[in-house]
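I have been asked to look over a protein record a colleague put together. The record follows directly below this note.
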Amino acid sequence: MTRRTAISDRVPLLQRRALLLRGVRAFFDSRGYLEVETPYAVPTPGEEVHLRCFRTELERPDGVRETRFLHTSPEFAMKRIVAASGLPVYQLARVWRNGEQSALHAPEFTMLEWYRPGAGLDSLMDETEALLRALLPPRLTYEDNTLDFAAPFERLTMAEAFSRYVGVDLLAVGDDAARLAREAGTGLRPGEDWEDLFFRLLLERVEPEIGRERPTFLTHWPAAQAALSRRDPEDPRVALRFELYAAGIELANAFEELTDPQEQRGRFEADRARRLALAPDQDWPLDEAFLADLDALPPCSGIALGFDRLVMLAVGAPRLCDIVWIS
C-alpha cells in the first residue's frame, strides 16, 4: 500500500475527527470559555522527570541565538493567562514528546487543555463527564469493551484501587518500597524504587481492571505524585489529582491547581535534580515567569486530555497513527 493510499483510506476517520474538533469548541464556547493559543517554542518546556523534549534554536534579527524547546504541554502559559485575567480558558494545542512511539503514543500529538477558576476536583470531573457525553454516543464499543457513557462515571480513589486490585493499604505503606513490594506479593527489581514499583503495580494490576464498563476517574493520588496539584487539606498524604480511563486507555490527567509559588519551586527543583541525574542533556532554566505569576492564580482546576486518544475511542481506531493525516 502506498503512502498516498494509506492517507486516502483514513479520510472517513479524519472527517469524524474534524466533527469532534467542532464539538469540543462548541462545548467550551457555550460555557463561556475563551479559546487561547500559546507559544509552542518556549525557553522552558516543563519539569517532568521522564519526558524528553525537542530542542531548537531561535535566531534573532541581530544574530543572537537562543535555545528553545517544543513544549510538552501549554500548562504554564495557560495558567499565566488565568492568573492575569481570571477567565476560564481552553486550548487545542500541538505538543511534542521525543522518543515516544506506540499505538497510544506519538512524538507529536494534540492535547486539549482547559482551566476553570473556582472549580474543585469534583466540579471538574462533572464537566469532563458532560464533555464526553456531548461528544460520544451513550454506548460505545471499543475492542472488547462496551462502555456506558450515560451512567455516572466511576470515581475511585487510588487507595481504594490499590486495596481492591493489589491488596495493599497504599497510604499505610507510605514511601516504603520494600514493604509495598512485600504486601503486594512481588519483589523489587534491580534499581527499582518506590515510584517505579508504584507505577508497575498501577500498570499491571490496576489499569487493566478499570474503565471497562464505564469510564473511571482514578482520584487522590499519593502526595509524592502531586506534580502541580494541591495536597488534600483533609488528608495531606494525598494530592487532589485524577486521571481518566476508558477501555484501557488513559484519556486525561487533572489537578486542583497548586497556587503556592514556594512549594511549587521546591517541587520543580526536586524534579529537575532527578531529571538531570537520568538525562543530563534535558537541561533548561526554571520558568521564573510562571513562578512569579503563580500566587495570582485564583483557586482553579485544570485538565489535559489526549484529543487523539479520544478520537481513537470514538471511531474505533486501534492506533493513534490511524487518525492523523500523515504518520
Q: What stands out?
A: Residues 188 and 282 are 28 Å apart (CA to CA). The mean pLDDT is 95. The longest strand covers residues 235-246. The first helix runs from residue 3 to 9.
